[in-house]
């Protein structure tokens, strides 16, 4: 469903505390590729280019925030923390909390599972183009992350299941391997990861990237290994 300019302005004002200046950018940010429209100048019009930009801007903002919030932490800890905050599951969850899903123009039968997180990144790109880095930083950190997440809980959670299963295997003198393959889906390319323990398959996971599928498979394997 396509939203009116008035509805879009109200949404960004109420959710992000933002007064929209360039409305057209935000309209594009809310068009999923499944509902692309043709534009004489731009060709197919959807939010993929803004998603690309927003992904980079969001990563920089989160890195900036974590660097100053945790001045004594190592590069490795900061990298893992950033990964938690910008991974697809987290962005999908945040987008739904913000009510962004209901603002997206899409074909629900062809949208896929990443539509909300992708739109969130596109919105970040739109805000950046409309307001610049400093305002985007303020909006994303204060109106999104600090409002909708308990940052200390995220900091303390260890959801790197692949590392955890490998550490478990080393401590218990077991051999763990990961095998990855492409599992095709009608709409988007999926990856399947398999965890092999001492030569036997014990779990598998699916995801839109190898990293996601490996984490899904490792989480299931870790649960099984705890009961061994």
Can you count the helices? Answer: 10
Largest sheet report: 3 strands, antiparallel
What value does the average pLDDT take? 87
Strand content: 5-15%
Low-confidence blocks of residues: none
- The end-to-end span amounts to 50 Å
Q: How would you spell out the order of helices and strands?
A: HHEEHHHHHHHEEEH
Helix percent reads: 55-70%
Helix/strand-derived category reads alpha+beta
Reading side by side through the largest sheet, how are the strands ordered?
Answer: 3-4-5
The strand count comes to 5
| Rg of Cα set | 20 Å
Instruction: Sum up the overall morphology in one term.
Output: globular
Protein model, in words:
It is a single chain. This protein has 228 residues and is an alpha+beta fold. It has helices at residues 5-16, 23-29, 48-69, 75-86, 88-98, 115-131, 133-148, 151-156, 161-171, 210-226, and strands at 37-39, 43-45, 176-184, 189-197, 200-207. Strand 3 and strand 4 form a beta hairpin. Helix 6 (115-131) packs antiparallel against helix 7 (133-148). The longest helix is centred in the first third of the chain and has 22 residues, at 48-69. It is globular, with a radius of gyration of 20 Å. The relative contact order is 0.12.
Strand and helix layout:
Elements: H1 5-16, H2 23-29, E1 37-39, E2 43-45, H3 48-69, H4 75-86, H5 88-98, H6 115-131, H7 133-148, H8 151-156, H9 161-171, E3 176-184, E4 189-197, E5 200-207, H10 210-226
Antiparallel strand pairs: 1-2, 3-4, 4-5
Tell me briefly what this model is.
The chain has helices at residues 5-16, 23-29, 48-69, 75-86, 88-98, 115-131, 133-148, 151-156, 161-171, 210-226, and strands at residues 37-39, 43-45, 176-184, 189-197, 200-207.
